[in-house]
Amino acid sequence: MNDQIVLAAGGIISNDLGELLIIHRPKYDDWSFPKGKLDFGEKLEECAIREVHEETGFRCSLGEELGLVTYQDRKGRKKEVHYWRMHILEGVFKDNDEVDKIHWSTIDEAMNLLSYAHDQKFLLNSVV
What we know:
alpha+beta, 43% strand, four-stranded mixed sheet, three-stranded antiparallel sheet
């Protein structure tokens, strides 16, 4: 196993109805929360805001830190994804190379849509 740790950050975005934003990535055909890897010299908070904007088109405000998810990535490395609660300030979703669909979902819908057990566990333990 690779001892390298990949740091990433993202956002749990909710709307006025209490629904959560879930993204679909066509490259992996999966549903997850918007997130991405840290750029060199970047702080986790900066990464979270940047990645959410790149993947969704939404500029968001950073709320409370919700914790982190750890798992092994596709290259066998340990990955830590730090999440913050976010609220949309502006923007419009346009499909892009990384994300082709978004879905606003209730907690129950999100549990059924999310592709990974670590995301489901995080949703139940940290978001609700």
